[in-house]
Amino acid sequence: ETGVTQTPRHLVMGMTNKKSLKCEQHLGHNAMYWYKQSAKKPLELMFVYSLEERVENNSVPSRFSPECPNSSHLFLHLHTLQPEDSALYLCASSQVGGGWEYNEQFFGPGTRLTVL
Amino acid sequence: QKEVEQDPGPLSVPEGAIVSLNCTYSNSAFQYFMWYRQYSRKGPELLMYTYSSGNKEDGRFTAQVDKSSKYISLFIRDSQPSDSATYLCAMSPNTNAGKSTFGDGTTLTVKP
Description:
- The structure holds two protein chains of two kinds.
- Chain A has strands at residues 4-7, 10-13, 18-25, 31-37, 44-50, 53-56, 64-70, 73-79, 87-94, 106-107, 111-115.
- Chain A is mainly beta.
- The radius of gyration of chain A is 14 Å and the shape is globular.
- The termini of chain A are far apart.
- Chain B has strands at 4-6, 11-14, 19-25, 32-38, 45-51, 54-58, 61-66, 71-76, 85-92, 101-102, 106-111.
- Chain B is globular and about 40 Å long.
- In chain B, strands 2, 4, 5, 9, 10 and 11 form a six-stranded mixed β-sheet that branches. In chain B, strands 1-3-8-7-6 form a five-stranded antiparallel β-sheet, with no helix packed on it.
- Chain B has a single domain (4-111), classed as Sandwich (Immunoglobulin-like).
- By secondary structure, chain B is mainly beta.
- Chain B starts with a strand and ends with a strand.
- The A-B interface holds A 4, 31, 33, 40-43, 45, 48, 50, 55, 90, 92, 94, 96, 99-110 and B 2, 4, 8, 32, 34, 41-46, 49, 51, 88, 90, 92, 95-98, 100-105.
């Protein structure tokens, strides 16, 4: 595997289900991110794990819960979601720190989530 | 008002045309300006980034930043059907990609 991988690629769940999205980066980066991408809206940063510190967007509902067991793996746990949570969930990684060069983010292909 | 406004599109052009994609912004703290390309069923990939004002060229792609007008553009010369994708502009106050603010995206179709 190379780059950033995400599983599953598609997920359909009911509002009472609990599911998890998985992301793995094979780039040796020290930061990982979850984004939500909805139609005709900008990418919304949900969570960042950078140098073992977690940063979150305060507008993200508590029904989304991230977990980062190590620098290569990132999970997004989902429970009691709403239909408006249907979107493409993107994982990304980057190398933070060191120099003035922009720290490029590498994105995975995303998980297309549909909440019924 | 959004911090970053992107021309909504969609945009449809014939093969070989010059394409101009544009974004405006309101936050004068932005120093890094990025363009991402996103193909259908894929994540965004960074095309180019520019620091501060000026032009940057990479093959058929030219990124232009005018900080005085708070306006950025991406030009695609000799457009190809393989350029058909959604283009996202993004801006950041520093090198930390996690601080980026994205535009909504413009979907481009290049017809053979």
